[in-house]
Amino acid sequence: MITEPFTSGNSVIHQVDPRLKIVLAVLLAGAIAVADRGITLTAGLMVAALLVALARLEVKEVLRRLAVVFGLMALIWVVLPFTYPGDPFLKLGPLHASKPGVLLCLKITLKSIIILAIMIALIATNTLSALGSALHRLGVPGKLVYLLVMSYRYIFVIENEYQRLMRAARIRGFQPGTNVHSYRTFAYLAGMIFLRASTRAENVYRAMLCRGFDKRFHSLGSMTPYGKNVGFTLLTGGAFLLILVLEIWGLKIRGWGI
Amino acid sequence: MTQEPSIISLEEIYFNYPGGRSILNGLDLEIFSGDRVGLVAPNGSGKTTLFNIIMGLLKPSSGRVTVFGKERRTEHDFKEVRRRIGLLFQESDDQLFSPTVLEDVAFGPLNLGKSREEAVAVSKKTLAFLGLDGFEHRITHKLSGGEKRLVSLATVLAMEPEVLLLDEPGNALDSAMKSKLIEALNGLPVSYILISHEFDFLSETTGKILSMEKGKVLFEDEVYVHTHRHSHKVGRQPHKHV
């Protein structure tokens, strides 16, 4: 089940024009992704925390989302320190965890958390239709926007259809197993879902035509007060510049920081 | 008194799906302003196809479609038709594609060039008319079957059409919702064609009933709805006259 728990707030961040949020989220995420210095990442972490705080999101829910990253990171922490060459940092029997390896893990983890937190604060606070409309106005091709918005709506219908077909198979005694009969049945199921999805797509398109759809998306999102957009742009744009300056400035006096 | 020109006129319409059997076979139909017509026919007799042809969603292999006094051929011709005629689809899930109810109902008005404020206002008004106050921010895919049906009707009505084509509007509605629908239909100043299998429902919402057979609309046995008193055995039990 997909829910949009972060879209319902009424904070400053929620009121900012989605287009600004998308552009700045991409800039910040890009800067963080290529940043290498500890000081830059620390600043990034603070910016992310500030944005989440400004959006007044439920901390528990945000942490629950971030927890997904930790699962992935665990895998990197298990492998990378022991395979990366460098001075040993920790010895576990025959295994040596190298210092650069541990540092690299730390950086990857930090970057992932920062980028995800920024995305939660800036992207997840828009409803999907507002995002679709904003992306379209930013020049993303209509077909892609269409695909995004429609996938969101119809994923549930497709899931229902799968459940219905599966039930129909089960009440006639179908038990999945490792045999040709099961594989064939699943292939039929998949084929049937594709068929139904394509028929449905055709009907939905007709319904849209009937309501005057002319390949443009309109959004109900209300107009943003000018001041809030400017304030947000100054703040977040400033944070982006700060990250850039820190990264470049840090490089110039190499050997001082991490 | 001269007769007003028809608002929808189909002449000699033929239609078949590629490689399939013929669905419509020289169909003729005329609808006049103020008509409230019921359409009863077996499944697969081409009722839904007929609606799609009126809206220009399917092109007949031959025949003439005239709507609001103009012959309609190209996609461009049908744009005006779609603005003035509202089609309620048989399947609500086909019609509701926006995440929330308000966005879905406002979709049509926004496409017609209304401002956001106007679109929201007309959407709220339409929802209230159908007794759906407070549904604005409900998630469309989480509505019950009957609620989806009424919201679908709201999406059509919000465009303020002059004519409605209703494909089994009573589907999935419980009796309370159905009476709400009957009341709404009777309160609307529009003409409509309504497909249904239920005579009770048709008798409360339409003035005449047509049927289809072999890809044609039958006029010979136009059924006029009327009530009469009579007596017979076990008349107290609920029963049907066909």
How would you characterize the overall build of this protein?
The complex is a heterodimer of chains A (258) and B (242). Chain A has helices at residues 12-15, 18-34, 38-54, 59-83, 99-122, 128-137, 142-170, 180-210, 226-252; strands at 88-92, 95-98. Chain A has 258 residues and is mainly α. Chain A has a two-stranded antiparallel sheet. Chain A is flat and about 65 Å long. The model of chain A has no long low-confidence stretch (mean pLDDT 84). In chain B, helix 4 (101-111) runs parallel beside helix 6 (145-157). Chain B has 242 residues and is an alpha/beta fold. Chain B has a single domain (8-224), classed as P-loop containing nucleotide triphosphate hydrolases (Rossmann fold, 3-Layer(aba) Sandwich), CATH 3.40.50.300. The model of chain B has no long low-confidence stretch (mean pLDDT 87). The interface between A and B is medium-sized, with 27 and 33 residues.
The end-to-end distance of chain B, rounded to whole angstroms, is: 36 Å
Low-confidence stretches of chain B: none
How would a textbook summarize the main sheet of chain B?
6 strands, mixed
Estimate nothing, just give the exact number of structural domains of chain B: 1
User: How many strands in all of chain B?
Assistant: 10
Strand content of chain A: under 5%
Distance between the termini of chain A: 43 Å
Average pLDDT over all residues of chain A? 84
Strand line-up in the sheet with most strands of chain B: 6-7-8-3-9-10
Mean residue pLDDT of chain B: 87
- Given the structure, what is the number of helices of chain B? 8
Specify the number of helices of chain A: 9
**SSE order of chain A:** HHHHEEHHHHH
> Radius of gyration of chain B over alpha carbons?
19 Å
